[in-house]
Design goal:
The protein is mainly α. The protein folds into two domains: 30 residues; 46 residues. The chain is 86% helix and 0% strand. The protein contains four helices and no strands. It is flat.
């Protein structure tokens, strides 16, 4: 993971991840399973759209769109 994030992962980083997971679990369990899971699902969807927008805005746009078109064509022709 150090190669991906480019910083050393120590005790504090591990503790932060554990605390975030615990807080999410507590929120989910206190508001009920259905509402809690819906909130986590909505948050997950929001995070995915933010990351996707960031990659599309800062990444190699031509490569991304070419790959999308080629893979969609391959999927449809092999269906």
């Amino acid at each position: 993971m150090e190669r991906v994030l480019h910083f050393k992962i120590g005790l504090y980083f591990t503790l932060i991840i554990i605390v975030v997971c615990k807080v999410l679990f507590l929120i989910t369990s206190t508001v009920g399973v259905e509402k809690g899971m819906k909130r986590i699902s909505d948050l997950n969807t929001l995070i995915v759209f933010i990351i996707m927008s960031f990659v599309l805005l800062t990444g190699p746009k031509l490569y991304i769109f070419n790959t999308f078109v080629e893979s969609t064509d391959s999927y449809i022709s092999d269906f």
